[in-house]
């Protein structure tokens, strides 16, 4: 009986010793500290991958808009006219866009970048309507003015329009009446409304976007080793 008690005590001691080993803590308590570090590294890598994907997607959309703008200019231009090529702006030029919304819209590259951003937010109809109004105000022919007014109304204003913009019912009714005898001020109230909407909502988000921040970064200074 004494031997049995001694064996039982030895077994209990062995069990207690096993529970105190690091491996036992691993089984009972879950992860070690190293595992938490691994998770943080994985999370950091994942964020970096997502950031690269976003920027790559932005560049693809931007090149698409620049391509379309360039093709449109070639179609309208006369033979022998100079072809416009849009180059990536310098960080200093990109930083100017943050000073005023008009600075962004005045830049061909900036406008294309902003359109790409609005497309990513599913509200590109705002900038397209604003651009259509800018083109409309430059139209001189009365016949073209009327046809363009009806097209803008069908595309952006009427209920269930393919690119319907967010304006109040009263403004919509006023436009519907005005386009019967179209003038250059037909869409002035709606254009101001959409401009304000972009300036106060989409524009600040654009300035905080990953793509814009990348454009504002200055390239690292590389030192050229001098030959001795």
Main pleated-sheet profile = none
Q: For the record, what CATH class of the domain at 91-216 applies?
A: Mainly Alpha
Determine the mean pLDDT.
78
Tell me the structural class.
mainly alpha
Give the distance, in angstroms, between the N- and C-terminal Cα atoms: 90 Å
Give the helix level as a range of percent.
over 70%
Tell me the CATH architecture of the domain at 91-216: Orthogonal Bundle
* CATH fold assignment of the domain at 91-216: Regulator of G-protein Signalling 4, domain 2
Subcellular location: Cell membrane; Cytoplasm; Nucleus, Nucleolus
Keywords: Cell cycle, Cell membrane, Cytoplasm, GTPase activation, Membrane, Nucleus, Phosphoprotein, Signal, Signal transduction inhibitor, Translation regulation
Signal peptide: 1-26
Main location: membrane
Structural overview:
- It is built from 11 helices and no strands.
- With 228 residues, the protein is mainly alpha-helical.
- It has a domain at 91-216: Regulator of G-protein Signalling 4, domain 2 (Orthogonal Bundle), CATH 1.10.167.
- The chain is elongated.
- Pfam families: RGS.
- Residues 100-216 form the RGS domain.
- Keywords: Cell cycle, Cell membrane, Cytoplasm, GTPase activation, Membrane, Nucleus, Phosphoprotein, Signal, Signal transduction inhibitor, Translation regulation.
């Amino acid at each position: 009986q004494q031997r049995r008690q001694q064996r039982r005590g030895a077994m209990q001691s062995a069990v207690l010793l096993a529970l105190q080993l690091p491996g036992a803590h691993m089984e009972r308590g879950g992860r070690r500290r190293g595992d938490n570090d691994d998770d943080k590294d994985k999370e950091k890598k994942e964020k970096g991958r997502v950031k690269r994907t976003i920027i790559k997607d932005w560049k693809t959309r931007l090149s698409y808009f620049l391509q379309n703008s360039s093709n449109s200019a070639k179609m309208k231009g006369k033979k022998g006219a100079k072809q416009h090529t849009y180059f990536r702006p310098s960080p200093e030029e990109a930083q100017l866009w943050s000073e005023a919304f008009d600075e962004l819209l005045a830049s061909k590259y900036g406008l294309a970048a902003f359109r790409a951003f609005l497309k990513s937010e599913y509200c590109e109809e705002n900038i397209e309507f604003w651009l259509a109004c800018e083109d409309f105000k430059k139209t001189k022919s009365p016949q073209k003015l009327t046809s363009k007014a009806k097209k803008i109304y069908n595309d952006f204003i009427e209920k269930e329009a393919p690119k319907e913009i967010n304006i109040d019912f009263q403004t919509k009714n006023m436009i519907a009446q005005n386009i019967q005898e179209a003038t250059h001020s037909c869409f002035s109230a709606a254009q101001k409304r959409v401009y304000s909407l972009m300036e106060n909502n989409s524009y600040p988000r654009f300035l905080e976007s990953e793509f814009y921040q990348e454009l504002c970064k200055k390239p690292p200074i590389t030192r050229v080793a001098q030959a001795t």
